[in-house]
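Notebook p. 47: complex prediction with octanoyl-coenzyme A.
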Amino acid sequence: MPLENILFRVEDGVGIATFNRPKAMNALDSRTLREIGELCAQVEGDPAVKALVLTGGEGKAFVAGADIAEMANLTGLEARRFAEAGQRTLERLEALPVVTVAAVNGFALGGGCELAMACDLIYASERARFGQPEVNLGIIPGFGGTQRLQRRVGPQRALEMILTGDMVDGPTAVAWGLALEALPPEKLLPHAVGQARKIASKGPAAIAAARRIVRATAAPPIGPGQLMEAESFGGLFETEDGKEGLKAFLEKRPAAFRGA
Ligand code: CO8
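Predicted complex, structure tokens below:
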């Protein structure tokens, strides 16, 4: 499958994947999700790629979430399947044999924040905005956000972000442990690629072992939580509020939730 919504190049052993769907703020539609799978296949199959950096380039967005236009008319079952497909894709990204680095240049919202959190290391631009704004749409995170966010920032902060839908800037993300550093925009990608290149220069078996051990022991597995997340995510698409929230975004008006 040719990559259209992701530009991919390899420089000195570091793969640089740039999301490139500017008309929708790099939102993840099902094609882009499949392209992330294809990107993983390319990295898995190419020993010349020793590290992977994900970025939204110089635009306003890293990735502004799952594609709301595509989600708006899904049934509960279809929404659950879409959430599961996203969860599997991010698990595959997380399981890549090489280190993964997110260079978050701008909006990393919903599925975009979840995508960044599936990477080993997150560096942010001072202009970055992280958030899980799904409640504004009458739904919840569906690509593992209820699980990975609390493992990064602790359950209380995660709950605050998920319940308010508020965005946080790069420096705040650093203060909370969501990102490692907040850099001036022009320094972000060079820094992220530099760190990736440094790691890529070490022994691959040592890097793989360290990643495996830290991952396996840092926190309980996310599988059971992701199952609950996908079930609830699908269920919310059957509610009036879920339908209203998604429709309101597309109609550029505030949602009128009724508790139904
Ligand atoms: N999906 C589709 N289109 C989008 C999205 C998105 N997530 N985000 C932005 N766009 C589009 C806008 O509709 C707009 O299109 P158009 O020009 O045709 O009107 C264009 O991008 C530019 O957006 P704005 O005009 O809104 O630009 P602003 O600079 O005013 O605002 C924001 C930028 C803050 C990023 C704003 O666009 C926004 O709030 N976007 C939505 C963010 C959001 O709610 N993300 C979460 C989505 S839900 C999710 O990710 C759940 C993950 C699990 C999914 C499981 C699948 C079933």
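Notes: The mean pLDDT is 97. The two ends are 41 Å apart (CA to CA).
Next step: compare against the earlier run before touching the bench.
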